[in-house]
UniProtKB/TrEMBL annotation:
InterPro entries: ALO_C, FAD-bd_PCMH, FAD-bd_PCMH-like_sf, FAD-bd_PCMH_sub1, FAD-bd_PCMH_sub2, FAD_lactone_oxidase-like, Oxid_FAD_bind_N, TAT_signal. The keyword Nuclease does not apply. This is FAD-dependent oxidoreductase. Keywords: FAD, Flavoprotein, Oxidoreductase. Pfam families: ALO, FAD_binding_4. Residues 44-209 form the FAD-binding PCMH-type domain. Gene3D superfamilies: 3.30.465.10, 3.30.70.2520, Uridine Diphospho-n-acetylenolpyruvylglucosamine Reductase, domain 2, Vanillyl-alcohol Oxidase, Chain A, domain 4.
Length: 456
Protein backbone atom coordinates (compact mmCIF):
# COMPACT_ATOMS: atom_id res chain seq x y z
CA UNK A 1 0.00 0.00 0.00
CA UNK A 2 1.15 3.53 -0.72
CA UNK A 3 1.61 5.83 2.28
CA UNK A 4 -0.05 9.28 2.20
CA UNK A 5 1.43 11.31 -0.66
CA UNK A 6 1.81 15.07 -0.75
CA UNK A 7 1.22 16.86 -4.02
CA UNK A 8 4.65 18.41 -4.03
CA UNK A 9 6.38 15.13 -3.21
CA UNK A 10 4.68 13.24 -6.01
CA UNK A 11 5.35 16.04 -8.49
CA UNK A 12 9.02 16.07 -7.68
CA UNK A 13 9.13 12.31 -7.78
CA UNK A 14 7.65 12.13 -11.23
CA UNK A 15 9.80 14.90 -12.63
CA UNK A 16 12.88 13.19 -11.32
CA UNK A 17 12.18 10.11 -13.41
CA UNK A 18 13.51 11.85 -16.52
CA UNK A 19 17.17 12.13 -15.72
CA UNK A 20 19.86 11.24 -13.27
CA UNK A 21 22.79 12.93 -11.59
CA UNK A 22 25.02 11.54 -8.90
CA UNK A 23 28.71 11.50 -8.18
CA UNK A 24 30.59 9.03 -10.40
CA UNK A 25 31.80 5.64 -9.36
CA UNK A 26 35.31 5.85 -10.81
CA UNK A 27 37.23 3.33 -8.78
CA UNK A 28 35.85 0.42 -6.85
CA UNK A 29 37.36 -2.77 -5.53
CA UNK A 30 38.96 -4.22 -2.46
CA UNK A 31 42.55 -3.75 -1.37
CA UNK A 32 44.90 -5.82 -3.49
CA UNK A 33 42.43 -6.05 -6.37
CA UNK A 34 42.60 -3.93 -9.53
CA UNK A 35 40.28 -0.89 -9.49
CA UNK A 36 37.14 -1.05 -11.58
CA UNK A 37 34.79 1.48 -13.14
CA UNK A 38 31.03 1.44 -13.57
CA UNK A 39 28.51 3.98 -14.77
CA UNK A 40 25.67 5.47 -12.74
CA UNK A 41 23.01 2.88 -13.56
CA UNK A 42 25.41 -0.06 -13.31
CA UNK A 43 24.71 -1.38 -16.82
CA UNK A 44 28.32 -0.64 -17.92
CA UNK A 45 31.44 -1.71 -16.02
CA UNK A 46 35.04 -2.64 -16.69
CA UNK A 47 38.32 -3.44 -14.93
CA UNK A 48 40.96 -1.73 -17.07
CA UNK A 49 44.68 -2.38 -17.02
CA UNK A 50 45.21 1.22 -15.90
CA UNK A 51 42.83 3.68 -14.19
CA UNK A 52 44.55 7.07 -14.12
CA UNK A 53 43.69 10.37 -12.40
CA UNK A 54 45.87 13.19 -13.80
CA UNK A 55 45.64 16.48 -11.94
CA UNK A 56 46.95 18.74 -14.71
CA UNK A 57 47.34 18.78 -18.48
CA UNK A 58 51.11 18.21 -18.35
CA UNK A 59 50.60 15.08 -16.31
CA UNK A 60 47.94 13.88 -18.74
CA UNK A 61 50.35 14.35 -21.66
CA UNK A 62 52.99 12.24 -19.95
CA UNK A 63 50.47 9.51 -19.15
CA UNK A 64 49.24 9.36 -22.73
CA UNK A 65 52.76 9.09 -24.10
CA UNK A 66 53.61 6.30 -21.69
CA UNK A 67 50.42 4.30 -22.27
CA UNK A 68 49.64 1.77 -24.97
CA UNK A 69 46.49 0.28 -26.45
CA UNK A 70 43.10 1.94 -26.27
CA UNK A 71 42.59 5.09 -24.18
CA UNK A 72 39.21 6.36 -23.00
CA UNK A 73 38.35 9.26 -20.71
CA UNK A 74 35.37 9.55 -18.37
CA UNK A 75 33.74 12.31 -16.39
CA UNK A 76 30.43 11.98 -14.54
CA UNK A 77 29.82 8.37 -15.66
CA UNK A 78 26.27 9.20 -16.70
CA UNK A 79 26.28 7.57 -20.16
CA UNK A 80 24.28 4.37 -20.57
CA UNK A 81 25.89 3.39 -23.89
CA UNK A 82 29.26 1.58 -23.80
CA UNK A 83 31.06 4.76 -24.86
CA UNK A 84 33.57 4.63 -21.97
CA UNK A 85 34.70 1.03 -21.28
CA UNK A 86 38.09 -0.29 -22.40
CA UNK A 87 40.29 -3.06 -21.04
CA UNK A 88 43.39 -0.88 -21.51
CA UNK A 89 43.59 2.68 -20.10
CA UNK A 90 40.80 4.71 -18.50
CA UNK A 91 41.47 8.34 -17.57
CA UNK A 92 39.42 10.45 -15.15
CA UNK A 93 39.12 14.19 -15.79
CA UNK A 94 37.73 14.86 -12.32
CA UNK A 95 40.75 16.81 -11.02
CA UNK A 96 41.02 19.06 -14.09
CA UNK A 97 38.24 21.42 -13.09
CA UNK A 98 37.20 24.95 -12.22
CA UNK A 99 36.72 28.33 -13.90
CA UNK A 100 40.09 29.44 -15.25
CA UNK A 101 39.33 32.48 -17.40
CA UNK A 102 36.63 34.83 -18.69
CA UNK A 103 36.67 37.67 -21.18
CA UNK A 104 34.63 40.81 -21.83
CA UNK A 105 32.51 38.99 -24.43
CA UNK A 106 31.10 36.52 -21.93
CA UNK A 107 33.28 33.55 -22.82
CA UNK A 108 34.00 31.38 -19.76
CA UNK A 109 36.80 28.78 -19.74
CA UNK A 110 36.70 25.73 -17.47
CA UNK A 111 38.74 22.64 -16.82
CA UNK A 112 37.06 19.87 -18.80
CA UNK A 113 36.33 17.78 -15.70
CA UNK A 114 34.21 20.54 -14.15
CA UNK A 115 30.71 19.34 -13.40
CA UNK A 116 28.03 21.28 -15.24
CA UNK A 117 26.33 22.29 -12.00
CA UNK A 118 29.58 23.67 -10.59
CA UNK A 119 30.32 25.52 -13.84
CA UNK A 120 26.85 27.09 -13.88
CA UNK A 121 27.19 28.16 -10.23
CA UNK A 122 30.62 29.69 -10.91
CA UNK A 123 29.21 31.47 -13.97
CA UNK A 124 26.41 32.90 -11.81
CA UNK A 125 28.96 34.20 -9.30
CA UNK A 126 30.66 35.94 -12.23
CA UNK A 127 27.34 37.53 -13.26
CA UNK A 128 26.71 35.12 -16.15
CA UNK A 129 24.38 32.26 -17.10
CA UNK A 130 24.61 29.65 -19.84
CA UNK A 131 22.10 30.07 -22.63
CA UNK A 132 20.44 26.76 -21.86
CA UNK A 133 21.09 23.74 -19.65
CA UNK A 134 19.77 20.20 -19.22
CA UNK A 135 17.94 19.16 -16.07
CA UNK A 136 20.86 16.93 -15.07
CA UNK A 137 23.88 18.96 -13.98
CA UNK A 138 26.51 16.63 -12.54
CA UNK A 139 28.03 15.48 -15.83
CA UNK A 140 31.49 16.75 -16.67
CA UNK A 141 31.60 19.49 -19.28
CA UNK A 142 33.77 17.34 -21.54
CA UNK A 143 31.36 14.41 -21.34
CA UNK A 144 28.28 16.58 -21.81
CA UNK A 145 29.52 18.21 -25.00
CA UNK A 146 31.02 14.96 -26.32
CA UNK A 147 27.58 13.32 -26.37
CA UNK A 148 25.39 16.26 -27.43
CA UNK A 149 23.70 16.74 -24.05
CA UNK A 150 20.83 19.22 -24.25
CA UNK A 151 17.96 20.95 -22.49
CA UNK A 152 14.77 22.06 -24.22
CA UNK A 153 13.69 25.05 -26.31
CA UNK A 154 13.07 25.18 -30.07
CA UNK A 155 15.37 28.22 -30.45
CA UNK A 156 18.03 27.04 -28.00
CA UNK A 157 21.06 24.86 -28.89
CA UNK A 158 22.54 21.84 -27.15
CA UNK A 159 25.66 22.26 -25.02
CA UNK A 160 27.96 21.23 -27.89
CA UNK A 161 26.78 24.25 -29.89
CA UNK A 162 27.44 26.62 -26.96
CA UNK A 163 31.19 25.91 -27.10
CA UNK A 164 33.40 28.75 -28.36
CA UNK A 165 36.81 27.09 -27.89
CA UNK A 166 38.39 23.78 -26.88
CA UNK A 167 41.78 22.43 -25.91
CA UNK A 168 42.39 18.81 -26.89
CA UNK A 169 45.30 16.49 -26.13
CA UNK A 170 45.74 13.97 -28.92
CA UNK A 171 46.61 10.38 -27.96
CA UNK A 172 50.23 11.01 -29.01
CA UNK A 173 50.45 13.83 -26.42
CA UNK A 174 50.25 16.75 -28.86
CA UNK A 175 47.97 19.59 -27.69
CA UNK A 176 45.61 21.41 -30.05
CA UNK A 177 43.62 24.59 -29.35
CA UNK A 178 40.48 24.96 -31.46
CA UNK A 179 37.86 27.66 -32.04
CA UNK A 180 35.24 28.56 -34.64
CA UNK A 181 37.91 29.82 -37.03
CA UNK A 182 39.09 26.21 -37.38
CA UNK A 183 35.87 25.31 -39.17
CA UNK A 184 35.00 21.64 -39.49
CA UNK A 185 37.80 20.51 -37.17
CA UNK A 186 36.28 22.59 -34.38
CA UNK A 187 32.74 21.45 -35.19
CA UNK A 188 33.89 17.82 -35.09
CA UNK A 189 35.57 18.27 -31.71
CA UNK A 190 32.56 20.02 -30.14
CA UNK A 191 30.62 16.76 -30.24
CA UNK A 192 33.42 14.28 -30.72
CA UNK A 193 32.36 11.27 -28.59
CA UNK A 194 35.80 11.38 -26.99
CA UNK A 195 37.17 9.94 -30.24
CA UNK A 196 39.62 12.68 -31.27
CA UNK A 197 41.60 12.95 -28.04
CA UNK A 198 41.15 14.02 -24.42
CA UNK A 199 39.54 17.44 -23.96
CA UNK A 200 41.20 19.39 -21.14
CA UNK A 201 39.58 22.83 -21.42
CA UNK A 202 36.12 23.94 -22.54
CA UNK A 203 35.18 27.56 -23.26
CA UNK A 204 31.46 28.29 -23.38
CA UNK A 205 29.39 31.23 -24.55
CA UNK A 206 27.37 32.81 -21.75
CA UNK A 207 24.77 35.51 -21.25
CA UNK A 208 24.20 38.08 -18.52
CA UNK A 209 22.82 36.24 -15.50
CA UNK A 210 19.06 35.67 -15.73
CA UNK A 211 16.23 34.15 -13.72
CA UNK A 212 13.51 31.75 -14.82
CA UNK A 213 9.91 31.15 -13.83
CA UNK A 214 8.88 27.50 -14.11
CA UNK A 215 5.24 26.48 -14.47
CA UNK A 216 4.23 22.83 -14.03
CA UNK A 217 0.78 21.24 -14.35
CA UNK A 218 -0.98 18.09 -15.54
CA UNK A 219 -3.18 17.37 -18.53
CA UNK A 220 -4.69 14.33 -20.21
CA UNK A 221 -2.04 12.99 -22.57
CA UNK A 222 -3.84 13.93 -25.80
CA UNK A 223 -4.44 17.46 -24.50
CA UNK A 224 -0.78 17.80 -23.53
CA UNK A 225 0.32 16.76 -27.02
CA UNK A 226 -2.02 19.34 -28.56
CA UNK A 227 -0.83 22.05 -26.14
CA UNK A 228 2.86 21.48 -26.79
CA UNK A 229 2.30 21.33 -30.55
CA UNK A 230 0.45 24.64 -30.49
CA UNK A 231 2.81 26.43 -28.08
CA UNK A 232 6.33 25.19 -28.79
CA UNK A 233 7.26 28.60 -30.28
CA UNK A 234 5.61 30.62 -27.52
CA UNK A 235 7.74 29.57 -24.55
CA UNK A 236 11.48 29.87 -24.05
CA UNK A 237 11.58 26.30 -22.69
CA UNK A 238 8.81 23.74 -23.03
CA UNK A 239 8.69 20.00 -22.39
CA UNK A 240 6.36 17.33 -21.14
CA UNK A 241 6.40 13.93 -19.53
CA UNK A 242 4.03 11.38 -21.05
CA UNK A 243 2.57 8.43 -19.12
CA UNK A 244 1.34 6.14 -21.92
CA UNK A 245 -0.46 3.58 -19.74
CA UNK A 246 -2.19 6.16 -17.58
CA UNK A 247 -2.83 8.48 -20.56
CA UNK A 248 -1.74 11.47 -18.47
CA UNK A 249 1.09 13.99 -18.76
CA UNK A 250 3.04 16.59 -16.79
CA UNK A 251 3.72 19.77 -18.77
CA UNK A 252 6.53 22.18 -17.86
CA UNK A 253 7.33 25.61 -19.30
CA UNK A 254 10.00 28.15 -18.37
CA UNK A 255 10.20 31.85 -19.14
CA UNK A 256 12.50 34.73 -18.20
CA UNK A 257 11.43 36.64 -15.09
CA UNK A 258 12.47 39.54 -12.89
CA UNK A 259 10.34 38.35 -9.96
CA UNK A 260 11.86 37.64 -6.59
CA UNK A 261 13.19 34.15 -5.99
CA UNK A 262 11.01 31.55 -4.34
CA UNK A 263 12.80 29.23 -1.90
CA UNK A 264 13.72 25.90 -3.48
CA UNK A 265 12.29 23.41 -1.03
CA UNK A 266 13.82 20.02 -0.30
CA UNK A 267 11.62 16.93 -0.06
CA UNK A 268 11.72 13.17 -0.04
CA UNK A 269 10.58 12.78 -3.64
CA UNK A 270 13.34 10.38 -4.67
CA UNK A 271 12.44 7.97 -1.86
CA UNK A 272 8.83 8.18 -2.96
CA UNK A 273 9.70 7.55 -6.59
CA UNK A 274 11.78 4.51 -5.72
CA UNK A 275 8.90 3.12 -3.70
CA UNK A 276 6.47 3.55 -6.61
CA UNK A 277 8.94 1.93 -9.03
CA UNK A 278 9.35 -1.03 -6.68
CA UNK A 279 5.58 -1.37 -6.41
CA UNK A 280 5.23 -1.28 -10.19
CA UNK A 281 7.98 -3.91 -10.52
CA UNK A 282 6.28 -6.28 -8.08
CA UNK A 283 2.67 -5.58 -9.11
CA UNK A 284 2.75 -4.70 -12.82
CA UNK A 285 -1.05 -4.75 -13.03
CA UNK A 286 -1.01 -1.56 -10.93
CA UNK A 287 1.24 0.45 -13.24
CA UNK A 288 -1.53 2.04 -15.31
CA UNK A 289 -3.38 3.00 -12.12
CA UNK A 290 -0.23 4.50 -10.61
CA UNK A 291 0.30 6.59 -13.75
CA UNK A 292 -3.32 7.81 -13.64
CA UNK A 293 -2.81 8.92 -10.03
CA UNK A 294 -0.45 11.61 -11.28
CA UNK A 295 -3.35 13.94 -12.03
CA UNK A 296 -4.75 13.47 -8.52
CA UNK A 297 -1.58 14.48 -6.66
CA UNK A 298 0.13 16.99 -8.95
CA UNK A 299 -1.16 20.54 -8.65
CA UNK A 300 -0.61 23.61 -10.79
CA UNK A 301 2.65 25.06 -9.45
CA UNK A 302 5.13 27.86 -10.18
CA UNK A 303 8.60 28.61 -8.87
CA UNK A 304 11.31 31.07 -9.89
CA UNK A 305 14.98 31.61 -9.22
CA UNK A 306 18.46 31.76 -10.78
CA UNK A 307 18.43 29.96 -14.12
CA UNK A 308 20.87 27.22 -13.16
CA UNK A 309 18.84 26.37 -10.06
CA UNK A 310 15.57 26.16 -11.99
CA UNK A 311 17.05 24.02 -14.76
CA UNK A 312 18.50 21.44 -12.39
CA UNK A 313 16.78 18.70 -10.42
CA UNK A 314 18.21 16.27 -7.88
CA UNK A 315 18.01 12.70 -9.20
CA UNK A 316 18.92 9.53 -7.35
CA UNK A 317 16.53 6.81 -8.57
CA UNK A 318 18.46 4.77 -11.11
CA UNK A 319 17.26 3.67 -14.54
CA UNK A 320 18.49 2.86 -18.06
CA UNK A 321 17.63 5.08 -20.98
CA UNK A 322 17.14 5.22 -24.75
CA UNK A 323 16.77 8.59 -26.48
CA UNK A 324 16.27 9.38 -30.14
CA UNK A 325 15.94 12.78 -31.81
CA UNK A 326 13.62 13.03 -34.81
CA UNK A 327 12.94 16.07 -37.01
CA UNK A 328 11.16 18.68 -34.89
CA UNK A 329 8.00 18.74 -36.98
CA UNK A 330 7.62 14.95 -36.74
CA UNK A 331 8.18 14.67 -33.01
CA UNK A 332 4.62 14.53 -31.72
CA UNK A 333 3.54 11.99 -34.35
CA UNK A 334 6.50 9.82 -33.38
CA UNK A 335 5.64 10.15 -29.70
CA UNK A 336 2.06 9.06 -30.34
CA UNK A 337 3.30 5.91 -32.05
CA UNK A 338 5.74 5.16 -29.23
CA UNK A 339 2.92 5.47 -26.68
CA UNK A 340 0.66 3.24 -28.78
CA UNK A 341 3.39 0.62 -29.09
CA UNK A 342 3.84 0.51 -25.29
CA UNK A 343 0.10 0.16 -24.75
CA UNK A 344 -0.37 -2.42 -27.52
CA UNK A 345 2.40 -4.61 -26.15
CA UNK A 346 1.34 -3.97 -22.54
CA UNK A 347 4.91 -3.17 -21.49
CA UNK A 348 5.31 -2.58 -17.78
CA UNK A 349 7.03 0.80 -17.36
CA UNK A 350 6.21 3.42 -14.75
CA UNK A 351 8.77 6.05 -15.80
CA UNK A 352 7.32 8.71 -18.10
CA UNK A 353 8.60 9.51 -21.58
CA UNK A 354 10.35 12.87 -21.72
CA UNK A 355 9.75 15.07 -24.77
CA UNK A 356 11.92 18.12 -25.62
CA UNK A 357 12.89 20.43 -28.51
CA UNK A 358 16.36 21.72 -29.47
CA UNK A 359 17.58 24.08 -32.22
CA UNK A 360 19.69 23.02 -35.19
CA UNK A 361 23.48 23.48 -35.02
CA UNK A 362 26.61 23.25 -37.18
CA UNK A 363 28.37 20.41 -35.38
CA UNK A 364 29.11 17.32 -37.45
CA UNK A 365 27.69 14.69 -35.10
CA UNK A 366 25.27 16.17 -32.57
CA UNK A 367 21.72 14.87 -32.88
CA UNK A 368 20.78 18.37 -34.05
CA UNK A 369 23.35 18.67 -36.84
CA UNK A 370 21.74 20.72 -39.61
CA UNK A 371 18.20 20.12 -38.32
CA UNK A 372 16.09 21.15 -35.34
CA UNK A 373 15.02 18.15 -33.32
CA UNK A 374 12.39 16.70 -31.03
CA UNK A 375 14.04 14.37 -28.52
CA UNK A 376 12.07 11.47 -27.05
CA UNK A 377 13.59 9.78 -24.00
CA UNK A 378 12.38 6.37 -22.82
CA UNK A 379 13.44 5.09 -19.38
CA UNK A 380 13.19 1.81 -17.49
CA UNK A 381 13.83 1.28 -13.78
CA UNK A 382 17.30 -0.22 -13.36
CA UNK A 383 16.02 -3.40 -11.67
CA UNK A 384 13.79 -4.18 -14.67
CA UNK A 385 14.99 -5.61 -17.97
CA UNK A 386 15.01 -2.63 -20.33
CA UNK A 387 15.23 -4.72 -23.50
CA UNK A 388 11.51 -5.45 -24.02
CA UNK A 389 10.73 -1.72 -23.84
CA UNK A 390 13.66 -0.52 -25.93
CA UNK A 391 13.29 -3.28 -28.54
CA UNK A 392 9.63 -2.40 -28.94
CA UNK A 393 10.02 1.36 -29.46
CA UNK A 394 13.32 1.61 -31.34
CA UNK A 395 11.82 0.60 -34.73
CA UNK A 396 9.39 3.51 -34.38
CA UNK A 397 12.30 5.91 -33.99
CA UNK A 398 13.96 4.40 -37.05
CA UNK A 399 10.88 5.09 -39.19
CA UNK A 400 11.13 8.75 -38.30
CA UNK A 401 14.85 9.05 -39.16
CA UNK A 402 15.69 9.25 -35.48
CA UNK A 403 19.26 9.94 -34.41
CA UNK A 404 20.38 8.25 -31.18
CA UNK A 405 21.81 10.14 -28.26
CA UNK A 406 25.46 9.06 -28.09
CA UNK A 407 25.31 8.53 -24.34
CA UNK A 408 22.12 6.44 -24.42
CA UNK A 409 21.42 2.87 -25.52
CA UNK A 410 20.76 2.12 -29.20
CA UNK A 411 21.49 -0.60 -31.77
CA UNK A 412 22.64 1.37 -34.83
CA UNK A 413 25.89 0.80 -36.72
CA UNK A 414 27.93 2.83 -39.19
CA UNK A 415 25.85 2.09 -42.31
CA UNK A 416 22.64 3.27 -40.65
CA UNK A 417 24.26 6.30 -39.02
CA UNK A 418 25.82 7.40 -42.30
CA UNK A 419 22.32 7.79 -43.76
CA UNK A 420 21.22 9.93 -40.81
CA UNK A 421 24.20 12.32 -40.64
CA UNK A 422 25.14 14.25 -43.82
CA UNK A 423 28.62 15.00 -42.36
CA UNK A 424 29.30 11.50 -41.00
CA UNK A 425 32.18 10.66 -43.35
CA UNK A 426 33.66 14.14 -42.89
CA UNK A 427 33.80 13.43 -39.17
CA UNK A 428 35.49 10.06 -39.73
CA UNK A 429 38.16 11.67 -41.89
CA UNK A 430 38.91 14.33 -39.28
CA UNK A 431 38.92 11.71 -36.54
CA UNK A 432 41.55 9.68 -38.39
CA UNK A 433 43.65 12.83 -38.75
CA UNK A 434 43.62 13.38 -34.97
CA UNK A 435 44.06 9.71 -34.08
CA UNK A 436 45.52 7.82 -37.07
CA UNK A 437 46.30 4.73 -34.98
CA UNK A 438 42.76 4.45 -33.60
CA UNK A 439 43.84 4.56 -29.97
CA UNK A 440 40.67 6.38 -28.84
CA UNK A 441 38.38 3.70 -30.28
CA UNK A 442 36.79 1.14 -27.98
CA UNK A 443 34.45 -1.62 -29.30
CA UNK A 444 31.40 0.67 -29.22
CA UNK A 445 33.13 3.33 -31.33
CA UNK A 446 34.42 0.68 -33.73
CA UNK A 447 30.83 -0.44 -34.20
CA UNK A 448 29.35 2.97 -34.88
CA UNK A 449 32.29 4.17 -37.00
CA UNK A 450 32.53 1.01 -39.10
CA UNK A 451 35.40 -0.92 -37.50
CA UNK A 452 37.94 0.21 -40.12
CA UNK A 453 40.63 1.30 -37.65
CA UNK A 454 42.54 -0.86 -35.20
CA UNK A 455 44.38 0.33 -32.07
CA UNK A 456 48.09 -0.46 -31.84
Amino acid sequence: MLPPLSRRALLKALLTTTGAAVLPLPARGRAGQPPSWSNWSGNQSVTPEQLLFPTAEDQLIDLLRQSSGTVRAFGGSHSFSPIVPTDDTLISLEAINGLSDQDDNGHLSFGAGTRLGAAAAQAWQAGRSFRNEPDINLQSLAGAIATGTHGTGITLPCLSAQVSALRVVRPDGETVSLSARDGDVFQAACCGLGALGVVTRVTLHSEPAYRLREHTWTLPLDNAIDFVGANRDRYRNIEFFAFPLGRTAIVKTMELTDQEDQPLLQDDSNDLLEMVCELSLRAPWLTATLQKLVTLFVSDEERQGPAHQIYANRRTVRFNEMEYTVPADDGLDCLREVCERIRDQDINVFFPIEYRYTAADDTLLSMFSERAGASISVHQYYKQDHRPLFDAVEPVFHRYAGRPHWGKLHSLGADQLRRLYPRFDDFLALRRHFDPKGRMLNPYLHRIFGGTEKPV
